[in-house]
Each structure stands twice: as C-alpha cells, then as structure tokens.
Design a protein that fits this description.
By secondary structure, the protein is mostly helical. The protein has a domain of 37 residues. Helix content is 52%, strand content 0%. It is built from 3 helices and no strands. The protein is elongated and about 115 Å long. 0% of the residues are buried. The mean pLDDT is 77.
Length: 83
C-alpha cells in the first residue's frame, strides 16, 4: 500500500499552491463580462473630453508670402495701355 502511494506521488504532476486571492485575481482578469464593462466605462469617460473639445476656441495661424516685382509680359507690359 505504501509503495503504491509513493509511486503515485512520484508519477503525478506537481501541484501548484494557489490561494483564494490568486484564484479571484485570475477569474477577474479572464472574465469577459468584466472586460466588456471596463471597456464601456472607459468609452463613456472619453466622451467628456471629446464633448469639451467642441467648446474650446480653435486658433489657426498662417503665414504667406508673395513676390510682386518681376517683369510683366501681358497686354499692359510697357506702356500701361492695351496694345
């Protein structure tokens, strides 16, 4: 009888020591309903900054430059009168 018990103990895979808190954490991490609820909560919380962004004034800065002094080759080239 002892030999059978010893043989069974030696051939069985090692047992991991898991306490109740580890089981709870694993269950919470892998629960799909909890993950969906967390994602929904984050999406709702993100709506607030997006809604406020429409109320903030928008500022646009632009710079332009044109050169106006080159030779003209049109109807009014030298005389200023149509040719």
């Amino acid at each position: 009888m002892r030999g059978l018990l010893l043989l069974t103990a030696c051939l069985s895979p090692p047992v991991l020591a898991v306490d109740l808190l580890d089981v709870y954490r694993l269950a919470r991490q892998n629960d799909t309903h909890t993950a969906v609820a967390r994602a929904h909560c984050r999406a709702v919380q993100e709506r607030v900054p997006q809604a406020r962004a429409g109320l903030v004034p928008d500022s646009v800065i632009g710079v332009g430059w044109t050169r106006n002094g080159g030779a003209s080759k049109g109807k009014y080239a030298e005389t200023g009168q149509p040719q």
